[in-house]
């Protein structure tokens, strides 16, 4: 690594430290602010995570309130609970007249019920089943509860089963990723199974393992790489709690940071993303700081009878800091580094995120960052991204309180080469959550003006989401897909207008462990497709249905 690169990393570290000091200095009374209540749907690269920022930090507990019911897989709070806790499982659902700490008040019962609803997190190693040991919990029992707290309260076993049907018109097949408008149709089924075991070896040490099996069937065209993985160690690590606030984790582990715009385990995909490496977390009541050094895991072909291996040629590292209660709301600051020894580039991203809610029911979120480094051709890399959103929960009647959001997303463009110019690289995101459910465009060379309408639909167990996107190119070159491949690098764009997408999603919370999704999306192609050589000028449609059970 050149001296210039080391200087840049030093500046990045100084910037992170300065942000941390600044956030401490600005912490004030936040009586007028509340945590943001937003729609969070698990999508990722293997699941459907719905739009809207997550109000939770990488190391904080799940929010107890959400516009989307936490019972559903899509609504599961997006939280990476890095702090290790070892709940006691002395008794499950014990009857409560007057507990040791006093009678079970309505507030205590509601808190226990909220813990039950939020037991499953965006990463399963952060799941919390302590409600099963709460004498004030008088809610329902579920399949799989008997697998928690085994071996004298030291072992939890559980998992997930999911099936999803896709009907794709005009955007299936062809190309290295099978993404983008192609003029081809396909229909197929995706299935996924996950099994985990969390074993507390002692008060301060635990072992966590998670197995994933993903398959597809019925398709006409070859499946996408993210759709099949017939047996994989998704997580496999040891974690040690060194002090009351500091823990270290080493081994294979999923990463989920902030709102998942840059770092996600990609739950919408049939497979999920994971990394090999080490991570340290310092957390207290005011926030957390995470530092990690990892290598992404290389996915092998589904028919190969071997575990996925570590990609030693790529290094992904960084630091992520969260302050929960500042005068601005929740404030996150981060540095993320990505080096690729084979493609010969290094990118460094410094960014921040602010999310909050006012006492007059206005919701807001900002996230943005700058990216610098060296491209594969030796040129300097200078890029950036920005997201801004303003929303409001509107009380139209006593019982009907829909939420409306207006968003603007920007990611810089450059030339049409993947590792050249000043186009932003979105690293390891959950792209599906933000730039359209059809996954046509990645966060690069893009303007996305969009609006959301979220409301209960015939009762609290069904949520309706309407989401409109208007896409444009930043530079008149080519759009990029969700894995950062140029869509049509050989021909210059005839126009910057990419088109319009409308997403309609029904999220059905059957109960806190079973959920369903029914969705339809339509893309109306813009002038880019009618004026650019080499691209089909067609519209596209996407219909899907998903059922998920957790246990």
UniProtKB/TrEMBL annotation:
Pfam families found in the cross-reference section: Alginate_exp
Domain Alginate export residue range list: 155-534
Keyword Signal: yes
Signal peptide: 1-27
Region of interest (Disordered), residue spans: 46-65
Entry-linked InterPro entries: Alginate_export_dom (IPR025388)
Residue ranges of coiled coil: none
Protein name: Alginate export family protein
Source organism (scientific name): Rhodopirellula halodulae
